[in-house]
């Protein structure tokens, strides 16, 4: 753990990407590199107050800017990118949330098409206090206010899709993308299957915190200063992104309807468990059925995302990816001590 | 907290019910009564070992027996039954789980109809150790074995449905029923809207523990010795069952597809939050979006069920139902001290 | 074809049923009996003009009255009721349609729960001209008016459900019920699996015509004078109602999401085709894939319904149910000639 | 109708595209140009007999080749491409259909992820007789054989997507793509919203015929010789492709779950009807509810597609797009007379 290679990636406004796929890398790094990067919020920083209605100040398709792509040397189709989140810190002392016309889970949308006029478009501004670890919600139509725990995360993390596709950054899928799970926080390692040479990792859509499902369509959106370790595992590409923290193995599924997102995530958790414990598939199905958790990630995006979680206690001494998460935790620790 | 009225309800085999609605009460109680009851497992106790395949030893529609109905004096249409779970204890030192032909989330079913032959029907037997607080999973096709925390709960709790309907006990809906959420554990108060005079509460389908989503279709199924307090709140019937424990307010939605179960639960949590905090509806929508949790309950039954959770810390000093949960917690404490 | 047994069934207002299941028969008939019956519209006849808003003049659960049940002598669990529609004629020279708060495919509903206020509730009155075979649509907010072909049918036809259930008449399912398919017109034979002794057939919800999907939630609702032949086939109960006319075999599926309704109907059409043509299941799957039609029935009710259709030309000389439809067509012809 | 501009487009094997978007045009044409083009079948012509299992002879992502893109001079974002199908003729005297592992409506898929092993992969070869207008199905596991009407169509027709996306040709969406509706036959005009300069039209996936829903996942796949007229309407871009033939206006919706595909198509048909007849939106909703048809297109692709149809008789003398369909019909007639 001697020499850490550290790269900085702070895109200018015109360097942000709005898709996964179809872009040349902003930077190419060796496996194991620490990347210090900045991300803008999902509004491109254009919503700064109550009067900045997103539909007025944001222009389609320039929504949800992502930082990247980061190409990883040696990453080939079928490999696995391991992305460990070392630190995610809000870049400003405020965050934004809003409703948006025909977007969200409790409104008619362009897909769940109905005859209703849009709900009111409204902006909320949150005070972020990193020191105290809180963000403050203030009601717009009354005096109510309450502090919520700060829990910074990235809604959008992914790689270039398979099949030569280029997808808008707002879409989650097998390549990751806009999964919007609060599990994508510091201390977590995310694993992505490589679909094109270099993998082409991009990150954006920081949230100071987010409820499960992101029901109104937006979280406490915030520009971030984020540190990751980007690593490479040869082979082993998962069908959909996997996550790991100190307590849980996690799989994801992004699809519609929501039960298919659930099925994808559970199917992969069954496979992963069977593989790690050398279990027959039905035995793994049974174990996951009793030991697993299944929180919603998002129920508002172009695909919905579910997460499946298995406590690592269930695994005994078995370690996923030969303990890569523990290794990256150690790298992160070394970096943080040196910083 | 002086005199607790305690009623015992231990049905004989032929007294079990298999529906919500359409039944005369087994017992009628006054609001505030403690009921000590026994429930049989979802297999009617007929699966005792590996060779007792459920499809062979269980006969449709005699599945998922429930104990009840319990009529509550004074309960009228539009009122709310509050059911507090004081204690849920496995009645035997073993529990059963199984696959079942064309049932579960990762198999073709009669509804998600396909051309696949059924998955193998297989039974797992768990050792339950109440003292140690664990249950032991043993793989069937290898030597793997692991202890999981015991976390007893009831999969099926509900009242007679509206509209003159009689529904099989395996169906969850606005009346409750087979919601299969692990949140229905001791320490929780569940609230049900009353659709017929007396409410007609029934309880069954004990689980020694259950993963979120109940992906294979069954949990660690166990007969239970359960103690509840049955209470009545005049008016205030929720659209779908609500739950409360010391840390969370919870709402439920049971429907298909799964996003509609999510929508129902989130919509009701928004309404509940708006009402308790005197918030404008969009302000409550925003608050729930950032502060809420959204675990799956079941993704295998005739309707799927999602749970929406709001930390009670978000409410400040506001109490749901004028603090009924706290009151019932105290009653439960008194009962447990006296027992 | 000598003596036709004809029974008349004209319920009084208080004899209408609002459920399938849980009712004693209004009449018991022998297989082969012709039943002349009257049905009220889905509003119970309470909406007679623009100002009779359904939510004001109709009272839950007294919606969608059905005529019946009709018990069939000798019908046992696992048998098949064959119901041939001889004639369906509007009882009045007007029909009604309306929007209804939170009901329909292009509106938030109690299940697809959202934050939108209901769409406007509006009533349309159609002139029905049986002689000319047309009904006239008149716009409410402009002078536009157009004649549409009269195509009378019953939205709700079914038997008592399995599992001891009692279901509201507005719910479609394996027992039939409120499938709302325009295929349920005169000249069609419908086949229902018998779940309780006598089968317990009920019919209601006449439509002067209906678009596929019934997108606004109601058709041109009309009281009807209807003539059916009720027949019995021993055994052969289909998993979901089947229909047959001179040109098509049809299967139905009622479920949510809509793809599951499609799957159920297609799965059963594959099975039926394989059985009639003695085909391997995949060969039947292939044939249905190329020869079948798949119109929506309803996408607004508590379950959605899809229809799968196979041209009988595909069958060569094979006849379903040993030519029962042709036989009932002949009985109908004899009746109509004698009338 | 004097001088018809006719362009020929017969791509070589390496000129086929496998995506919508991200490609330079093969040809640029003026509005009104007739294009004679050839398309390969969805298997790239690699499946020629029973032993050519698609999973063995086809390589992802080189599936479903499309011919194009065709750029249209003057086509700008927000315009509408009108594509009239003059003739669609099978290029060979045989067509292919097959099952494919984990693809189709009655099988577990990668999205509706389950634990089932794939269904058997099987190939069927159809004889196509253009003269007689029939194709012959032959069962693989028995001697059964039957002639079905030839009804040539294109499963995949679309333009470059919005938002800078590049999508695999197997995906249907607002840009069209792999909608797989049998309505895309000769005599039909399809309307697509232009998302990038030139529109970038591509066509492929010819079917000698197809059942509604394409339940097994493939139709009678055939290389085609196809003639279209490509025309341009300034402005008026529909939200999702629209179709028109002599009898019907049609809208499409491509999404999951299937009810959302239905909603999109119905919503657009309501809008279109309101616009053409100058109706209030709810009046149009009502009219479509009673007069519309709603057949499935595909229930097997990455998005499902529904079609909504309104008889043009309902419109009186109103014509969509100022009679462009009639005009293109006349152009087609002139071409066919001259050919």
Automatic annotation (TrEMBL), chains A, B, C, D:
It comes from the Bacteria. One of its GO terms (molecular function) is hydrolase activity, acting on carbon-nitrogen (but not peptide) bonds, in linear amides. It holds the Pfam family FmdA_AmdA. SUPFAM superfamilies: Acetamidase/Formamidase-like. This is Amidase.
């Amino acid at each position: 753990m001697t020499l850490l290679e550290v790269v900085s990636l702070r895109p200018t406004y015109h360097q942000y990407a709005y898709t996964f796929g179809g872009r040349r890398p902003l930077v190419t790094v060796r496996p194991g590199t620490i990347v210090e990067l900045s991300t803008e919020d999902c509004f491109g920083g254009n919503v700064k107050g109550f009067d900045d209605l997103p539909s007025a100040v944001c222009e389609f398709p320039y929504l949800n800017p992502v930082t990247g792509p980061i190409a990883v040397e040696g990453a080939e189709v079928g490999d696995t990118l391991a992305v460990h989140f070392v630190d995610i810190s809000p870049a400003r002392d405020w965050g934004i949330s809003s409703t948006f016309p025909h977007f969200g889970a409790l409104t008619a949308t362009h897909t769940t098409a109905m005859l209703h006029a849009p709900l009111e478009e409204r902006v909320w501004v949150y005070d972020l206090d990193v020191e105290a670890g809180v963000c403050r919600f203030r009601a717009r139509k009354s005096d109510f206010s309450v502090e919520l725990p700060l829990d910074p995360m990235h809604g959008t993390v992914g790689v270039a899709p398979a099949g030569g596709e280029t997808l808008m950054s707002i879409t989650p899928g097998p390549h990751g993308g806009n999964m919007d799970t609060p599990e994508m926080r510091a201390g977590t390692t995310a694993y992505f299957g490589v679909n094109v040479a270099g993998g082409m990792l991009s990150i954006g859509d920081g949230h100071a915190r987010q409820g499960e499902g992101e029901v109104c369509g937006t979280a406490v959106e915030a520009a971030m200063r984020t540190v990751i370790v980007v690593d490479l595992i040869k082979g082993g590409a998962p069908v959909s992104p996997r996550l790991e923290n100190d307590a849980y193995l996690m799989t994801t599924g992004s699809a519609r309807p929501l039960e298919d997102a659930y099925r994808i995530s559970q199917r992969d958790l069954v496979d992963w468990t069977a593989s790690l414990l050398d279990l027959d598939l039905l035995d793994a199905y049974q174990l996951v059925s009793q030991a697993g958790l299944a929180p919603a990630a998002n129920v508002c995006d172009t695909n919905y995302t579910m997460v499946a979680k298995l406590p690592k206690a269930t695994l005994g001494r078995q370690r996923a990816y030969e303990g890569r998460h523990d290794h990256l935790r150690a790298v992160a620790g070394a970096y943080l001590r040196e910083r």
